[in-house]
């Protein structure tokens, strides 16, 4: 399954979503934007060095593109601040990081005055299309929370469920991963897994089916679950994998990309708008997927914006 | 690359290696042994319930097989003890776990009187053939040491190097994995990685090239290493991955098998003989691979044994 196609079956982006891009003044970001515009993406507010941005518009033959607006910024900090403020002021629906440090962007996102806090935890959700697997896989948290507490894992799970629902997975199956499938008080990952499972059964976490602890094989392989005699609706059929910590999630993320040949896109959820944060080493396809996912998970698609003027 | 073929290019097992199988009285183990015998494997000492073993010999049409000897055992504990003692007494070169708990077998392996201790740490090495990757991948430790100390990681590395050398990887490239590629005193995996790297440069760990910390992508993808500007002989070209802890190694192990479609075999090293420990949920191919790797990494292939009588 092609990830992009499962995001937008018609291959078109929604044309009424506005994306604010902090640090857009570089070729790599322009390549992604160009590809998005080819697919009828909405509108972009590009923040960065004015002269460089104008040169890039010419180079990418976008100088007449009405769906782009350029907003000059003197440095990374200002670029981040202005982009964040645009989302805060509802001039944009999605925040995207170009070539500025993630730290600089997140500092502005977390600003108490004009930032994008909602009181919710921020967490990262990766969306994967894995060869020979018939459905999408959602993974969290591979980028934001290093060692989440149980209450943070509740939020992480809820955010991942919400993202999965945007992909028409109505009652996602959530596997809470550990090294083993039994509860061991000395292994925190298994304790957290037991709690999340039971919270789900008690109605404390809704709109999904949770089971854990599950070793990775029991989570995704029906055969492995059968052999280990772990028999429930989640085991072997997981849509969402909640990982013990960032280090483990990160290794699985990279293994899926580099060994399994998976396509991936990821976003940060929990703020006032989806935040698209890609890594320098990501391919442009991965960046485009992330952007598409960010646009897809925008919860309030404002109908008032349908022309360049309103960008 | 087919893993089995890279273990034994001629498709034949060495015919002078004796394997002691604890808990052999089940179909799953017999299937593996039958396949090994088809490939000219050496000799098997099978421990377990006498009647069941004899019935299985008939069922698998092995009743005239001169390369099998049956040794009755009344229970799992005795089965494990007798198999371990056979290796201890040099009647066998490889120890293999059938359908008995790993714990029961390892208890006997660690017995001070007749066990297989050498004073070395025991560690697990997984050998993977990953689709679209041109060389084998060695992974440690996904099964024995939950949270290895730095001195244990030295042993884990040395054992993995030794196994790689059995596969004609003369100077293996060892990547020490962490979530990031910079040294951060607050992240122990990165500290350990820096130490292992420098120990290698100082000649404290020989016969390999070590670099770390490396995130998984920088370890195995030349392109990712280039983008992150990590430039050395190991980055992007790793043969061996040393993981921060068992939990992370385990997830990578299962991701390789279940998402990347890798073939795998693994053994426990550091004892007097290779120990083949497979999981109930492993396919028979995986078990056969593990057995083949165990036979291949036997360091003393005794020439004195070349007939059934000496088994």
**Approximately how much helix is present in the residues of chain A?**
25-40%
Structural class of chain A: alpha/beta
Please write the string of helix (H) and strand (E) elements of chain A. HEHEHEHEHEEHEHEHHEHEEH
Q: What do the pLDDT scores of chain A average to?
A: 90
Q: Provide the spatial order of strands within the biggest beta sheet of chain A.
A: 8-7-9-6-5-10
Low confidence ranges of chain A: 300-311
Rg of chain A: 20 Å
Distance between the termini of chain A: 34 Å
User: Largest interface, with Cβ-Cβ < 8 Å?
Assistant: A-B, 37 and 35 residues
Helix count from the secondary structure assignment of chain A:
11
* Percent in strands of chain A: 15-25%
Shape of chain A: elongated
Report the strand count of chain A: 11
* Oligomer type: homodimer
How would you summarize the topology of this molecule?
2 copies of one chain form a homodimer.
Chain A: H1 3-7, E1 18-22, H2 27-38, E2 43-48, H3 50-59, E3 68-72, H4 76-88, E4 94-97, H5 102-109, E5 123-129, E6 137-140, H6 150-166, E7 173-177, H7 188-201, E8 209-214, H8 216-220, H9 222-227, E9 240-242, H10 246-258, E10 263-269, E11 275-276, H11 284-296
Parallel strand pairs in A: 1-2, 1-4, 2-3, 4-11, 6-9, 7-8, 7-9
Antiparallel strand pairs in A: 5-6, 5-10
Helix pairs in contact in A: 2-11, 4-5
List keywords for this structure.
5-stranded parallel sheet, 6-stranded mixed sheet, alpha/beta, 311 residues, homodimer, 37% helix
């Amino acid at each position: 399954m092609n990830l992009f196609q499962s995001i937008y079956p018609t291959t078109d982006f929604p044309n009424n979503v506005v994306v604010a891009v902090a640090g857009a003044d570089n070729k790599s970001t322009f390549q992604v934007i160009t590809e998005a515009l080819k697919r009828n993406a909405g509108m972009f507010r590009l923040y960065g060095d004015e002269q460089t941005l104008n040169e890039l518009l010419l180079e990418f033959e976008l100088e007449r593109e009405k769906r782009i607006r350029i907003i000059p910024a003197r440095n990374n900090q200002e670029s981040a601040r202005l982009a964040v403020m645009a989302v805060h002021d509802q001039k944009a629906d999605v925040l995207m990081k170009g070539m500025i440090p993630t730290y600089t962007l997140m500092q502005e996102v977390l600003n108490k005055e004009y930032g994008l806090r909602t009181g919710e935890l921020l967490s990262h959700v990766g969306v994967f299309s894995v060869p020979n697997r018939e459905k999408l896989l959602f993974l969290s948290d591979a980028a934001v929370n290093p060692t989440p507490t149980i209450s943070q894992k509740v939020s992480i799970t809820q955010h991942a469920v919400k993202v999965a629902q945007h992909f028409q997975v109505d009652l996602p199956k959530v596997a809470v991963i550990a090294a083993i499938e039994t509860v061991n008080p000395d292994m925190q990952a298994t304790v957290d897994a037991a709690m999340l499972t039971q919270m789900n059964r008690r109605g404390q976490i809704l709109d999904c089916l949770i089971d854990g602890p599950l070793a990775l094989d029991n989570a995704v392989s029906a055969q492995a679950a059968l052999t280990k005699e772990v028999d429930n609706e989640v085991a072997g059929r997981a849509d969402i994998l909640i990982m013990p910590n960032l280090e483990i999630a990160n290794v699985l993320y990279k293994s899926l990309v580099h060994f399994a040949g998976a396509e991936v896109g990821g976003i940060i959820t929990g703020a006032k708008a989806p935040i698209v944060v890609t890594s320098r080493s990501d391919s442009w396809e991965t960046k485009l997927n992330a952007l598409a996912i960010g646009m897809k998970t925008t919860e309030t698609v404002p109908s008032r914006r349908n022309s360049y003027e309103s960008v």
